[in-house]
Known about the structure:
The structure is a homodimer.
Chain A: E1 2-4, H1 7-19, E2 24-29, H2 35-47, E3 50-55, H3 75-84, E4 89-91, H4 95-98, E5 105-109, H5 117-120, H6 124-139, E6 143-147, H7 151-163, E7 169-173, H8 193-198, H9 201-214, H10 220-232, E8 237-245, E9 260-268, E10 271-279
Parallel strand pairs in A: 1-4, 2-3, 2-6, 3-4, 6-7
Antiparallel strand pairs in A: 8-9, 9-10
Helix pairs in contact in A: 6-7, 9-10
Amino acid sequence: MEIIEQVTPMQIRAEELRMAGQTIALVPTMGFFHEGHLELMRVGKKHGDVVIFSIFVNPLQFGPSEDYACYPRDLEGDLAKAEKAGADIAFLPSGREMYPEGFQTKINVKNVTQPLCGLSRPGHFDGVTTVVAKLFHITKPHLALFGQKDYQQLTVISRMVKDLNMDIQIVGVPTVREADGLAMSSRNSYLNAAERRSALCLKKALDLAEELVQSGEKEAGKIRAGMTSLIEHTAHAKIDYIQICNPITLEDKEFVEDEALIALAVKVGKTRLIDNRIINKRKWS
Amino acid sequence: MEIIEQVTPMQIRAEELRMAGQTIALVPTMGFFHEGHLELMRVGKKHGDVVIFSIFVNPLQFGPSEDYACYPRDLEGDLAKAEKAGADIAFLPSGREMYPEGFQTKINVKNVTQPLCGLSRPGHFDGVTTVVAKLFHITKPHLALFGQKDYQQLTVISRMVKDLNMDIQIVGVPTVREADGLAMSSRNSYLNAAERRSALCLKKALDLAEELVQSGEKEAGKIRAGMTSLIEHTAHAKIDYIQICNPITLEDKEFVEDEALIALAVKVGKTRLIDNRIINKRKWS
């Protein structure tokens, strides 16, 4: 597996691959790999000839009171896992390489960044779109893979790609879960044993919502009330948001009649976890 | 000369050219060509194999009280002139093609957009960077050419390209002038005969500034005062700004000791004109 740490050599290598007719799949990450990340690489390998992954804990997308400084890292473990998953090139830039002195540009996607995580993480998505655009220009992918666990991130990036006419196919990959259903996340490593048990409330609340819909409930308010009650009765858990919305525009829905996104963020102890589910999923024939 | 009006065919054609090893030079314009535009195409042809130019009067970069609706247009004349100048492909998108329903993304370059034209045209440069990024992603150029007359625009775009790691060489082409020294601009067509004579005050003020510097004056305030006086004594002319600043950061300079940008905007009648000059230009050995 190749390791590249600087922008210019990465661009030269990417251009060389493109000119040789190779299809490049990019998996942008913040490292500390779990099966979710590795699945992105495996799916990337199916669609592309060369899988490039990046590890960069992006300061721009963390708020001042968030976990940038203590975000978990394990470079050696990550490289071994990625190689096993079939990745070809690791792009590992430093902060200085990504944001040299004088840096002053941001990309803002206006509407879909507002609700959900946008409410409690102001500026977060500007940081995400800016770094992802940079990574796209550096690694020149034909396609890029993102996990559906970060559903809003996937929506925001898809919107940016469309609006700025980036010629890149964005692939959303289904969330990989632990045996009991907890969505995999690098932040799960923060949980102690009691919190780990409580963390399952996100998945349980989504199960409950789906059951309510299947039993005929259409009022978003009532579905949300059920989910709220379930989480409020879970030890260590504090709701950040529960939203039921249009899966493209992320605008709130009052009634769940066709396809809808149910998304939630819950603080379990000090750890903020997210999960989501699309219900009434359209069947594409 | 090829004419392409839609995004996808343009991207396919550009990718095809790149894969065939052709170097693409892009000249983004708002049309109504004068020698300045044609010079960009000629310089593009020197550096690249294929010159693509775009004509798009970008609503995003006009303020509500500006001249978007009456911006001069002459498509037929433009195409004939561009062909003669050696251009290969005209990209002529509609507003709907560039900004379809749901569009919501903007690129902001923070510091260098603030002074000069940024003061009297809020939001202008967000419109410029956003449309230029779109054109870059659509036409996939190796290099792109911009006139030095719009010096701040050139600075802002260079900054965006650097900050977002776009793998594109930005080439600034010296301002083309009328016989008497007026910088060529599509907006000169708005001037009546008396205003046309007054319009020369921009060039004269820059000449005066350069003379003052050559005679030993170093205080930016005094240089500005001389320029101000000259323009205030010109009929129909009203100063928007005169700034003396660092040519990279565009931060004001109090003293002109090394390389400096002198830039000004003047309303002549209802027409806003700009011009600039770099003084004490560094010699690169």
